[in-house]
Amino acid sequence: MRELGSIGWLVLVLLLALATLGCSPAEDDSMRTAADATTASSAPTADEGERSEGHRAAFITSANVLEHERAWPDIVALVEPWTPPGTEQVLKPGYRGALIRVEADGRARIAFGRHGNQLIPLDHTDLIERANEVAAGGRHKIAPNFLAHFGTQLLHPDLEGIAPYPTPELAKSTRFLCIFANPARPDFPALVERLRSLGEVAGLQVLFFPLAMPEGSAERVKETLTTFAWRVPFAYPQAAEVHAQKLVGKIPEAPEALLITDEGRSLLELPLEQGDAVDRLRAAAVEAAAGR
Questions:
Q1: Are the CB atoms for 135 and 60 separated by under 8 Å?
Q2: Quick one: DSSP state of residue 268?
Q3: Which tens digit of pLDDT belongs to each residue from 116-127?
Q4: Whole domain around residue 251: which residue ranges?
Q5: Do 114 and 176 belong together in one domain?
Q6: Torsion of CA 233, 238, 243, 249, to 10 degrees
Q7: How far is the C-alpha of 194 from the C-alpha of 264, rounded, in Å?
Q8: How many domains does the chain have?
Q9: Rounded to whole angstroms, what are the CA distances from 61 to 11, 277, 278?
Q10: For 176, phi and psi rounded to 5 degrees?
Q11: Which of 97, 119, 141 is where one domain is finished?
Q12: CA-to-CA distance for 137 and 56, rounded, in angstroms?
């Protein structure tokens, strides 16, 4: 064999090194998948690794997406045109919205900002594709969906003045009981008494959304909660009705409750005027905690 020059030896050494590492010399960063990039940039904890491996083993479809709420993306996009009911404006494919939750009937509840909150068939969105990307580690979520969308929208019931409730404190809970009611109603004190014991359910955080209150009434709502010793995080009054439309698709005329997971999955929704409402909410919250 002819003697190799210095450059030839350098090329040979590099080729041998690549072969030893099991790499192709033609491979570069542009060939890496999003999942590779995510894995390289931030190694998962043991708990995250187990959860990720579990999701990879279960291919997510429209038939089982309710079972994989941890993989629900926070944002989804349309893949088919959609005309919101009561309008003539068509939302084109690619239009994005915030995923509030997947409903049991197989539709996605999506908030489209100025285009309202819509219930849309899953096959009109890229939700399943994005969910599989989340499960495989190729798409990042900053937090469970409910916390991502509403975690910064609540006020502290105890601190002096009007102060936000810390999102990390909310994140300690796995289920949230959203109460929609007008605190100026004469029957509000009785409602608080009925709900008070639910604050003792482990892992459950009660949240209050004050309805029919004028703008600038946050201090008044806080004083009302303090008067009745019901110190729970509450929404800005001027935004509470917007949140209600996103979460339950309406502004309830009478007190109503929505029990959800931290991803936003609905566990139970019912009017609080029902005599057994509190017992049913407690049972649902305990059952969810037990993983049944």
A1: yes
A2: E
A3: 999 999 999 999
A4: 147-289
A5: no
A6: 140
A7: 24
A8: 2
A9: 48, 33, 34
A10: -130, 135
A11: 141
A12: 9
Greater confidence (8 vs 126) lies with: 126
166 and 276 fall within a common domain:
yes
Name the residue with tokens 């303090």. Answer: 226
Instruction: Examine the pLDDT at 278 and tell me if it is beyond 90.
Output: yes
Name residue 81's amino acid.
P
| Structure confidence at residue 290 as a pLDDT band (50, 70, 90) | confident
Axis-axis angle for helices 188-195, 277-289 (nearest 10) = 30
Number of DSSP helices (H) and strands (E) in the chain, helices first: 10, 10
Asked if residue 259 and residue 217 are part of one domain, the reply reads yes
**Nearest-CA neighbor of 204 among 278, 265, 146, 288?**
288
Q: Which of these three, 118, 141, 164, is where a domain ends?
A: 141
Q: Which neighbouring-strand residues pair with 121?
A: 107
Average pLDDT of the residues in 276-280: 97
CA 25 to centroid of chain Cα atoms:
42
Phi and psi angles of residue 88, each rounded to the nearest 5 degrees, phi first = -110, -5
Alpha-carbon gap, residue 59 to 53, rounded angstroms: 11
Phi/psi for 184 (5° steps) reads: -90, -5
Residues 6+ apart with CB under 8 A from 15: 25
In a domain, 28, yes or no: no
Instruction: Please give the structure tokens belonging to residue 128.
Output: 């399943």
- Same domain? For 123 and 151 the reply is no
Predicted TM-score of the model (pTM): 0.79
